[in-house]
Amino acid sequence: MSSLIHPRLQNLYQYWLTIKNKRHMPAKADLDLHRIPSHLPCVFLIEWDPVNTVFTWRLTGTALYTLCGRELSTSPVLDLWEPGQRADITDTFQHVRTAFQPFCIRLRGFSSEGHELGLEMLTMPLLDTVSTNVLIFGGLVPFKTPLWLDRAPLQKLNAWEVIALDGCRPDRSITPAMAHVPISDLHIQEVKTH
Question: Where are the domains of the chain?
Answer without folding.
Answer: 7-18+43-190
